[in-house]
Structures are given as C-alpha cells and as structure tokens.
Amino acid sequence: MAKVLYTAEATVTGGRAEGHGRTSDGMLEVDLRSPKEMGGEGGGTNPEQLFAIGYAACFEGALGVVGRRQHLETGDASINSKVSLLPTGDGGFKLGVALDVTLPSVTDAAQAVEVVRAAHQVCPYSNATRGNIEVELTANGQAV
C-alpha cells in the first residue's frame, strides 16, 4: 500500500433509516434518516447527500490542483453535485452522479472543459468510482 496521507474514521449505528453517524474527532455528527421520497420520515441526512457533498468538495480540491499546475484561477469554482440512487434491476442498487462545475474565472469554454476533465483524473472520488458508476460532468454549462 502507498504512503497514507490521511485516514478518516467514523462510526454509524442504526443504519440509513434511523441511524446516527459520528467521526472519531467529533467534527461531524449527523442523524441519518431515509428521505420522504423513499417512504422515510426525513428529518436527517442520508448517505447520498453525504456522498454528494464529499464528492463535490473533493472535486473542488482537484480543480485547485489542476489550476495550480496550469497557472489558472479556479478558487471561485462552484459545484452542483447530484447523487442519484438507482435500482440495478436485480434487487440491488447503484449510484449515478452529475457534477455541474462552474468556473467563473475560466472564460474560455474549451479550457473550462479541459480543466474539469483533468480534475476528474486527479480527484480521489473520481478515481474510486471510475468504471463503477456513471459520472456526468459539465463545465460552465458544456458537457465534458
């Protein structure tokens, strides 16, 4: 295994329907509830929401890496992340992701697409999910 840069630790009890999650450092603590759209009571977060925030935050960090490498300003990036829970057709479930990236400081459409494409190669979430889930990307409104 490669040199570990960081390890996050969390504990969940009660699962996604009526659970509770907490990181080992206490910086994140959430009540987990199934969304009303899935017949749950709502009133808490769910794994898909947490994944959407995590992926968007990770991808923004990858944009920063690419921006520094290419001497571009990406610090004003905004990412609208959608994570969908989908049936597999055989009783299981899978995820689908759409990341809509806005790069106000990168005004050239082709360059924005290339920055997002490069970030998708750098991002740990993208690397972890590549080939496992469908990820749709847009950069300043253009498909990547």
Protein described:
The protein has helices at residues 15-18, 47-70, 109-122, 124-129; strands at 10-13, 19-23, 29-33, 78-87, 93-102, 134-139, 142-143. It is of the alpha+beta class and 144 residues long. The strands form two sheets. It has a four-stranded mixed sheet, with helices on one face. It is globular, with a radius of gyration of 17 Å. 22% of the residues are buried.
List keywords for this structure.
144 residues, alpha+beta, 4 helices, 7 strands, 33% helix
Supply Rg: 17 Å
Unreliable stretches: none
- Give the rounded overall mean pLDDT: 96
Structural class: alpha+beta
| Termini separation | 32 Å
Strand order of the largest sheet: 4-5-6-7
The biggest beta sheet, please? 4 strands, mixed
Helical stretch count? 4
Tell the overall outline. globular
Order of helices and strands: EHEEHEEHHEE
Question: What proportion of the residues form beta strands (DSSP E)?
Answer: 25-35%
**Helix amount, in percent?**
25-40%
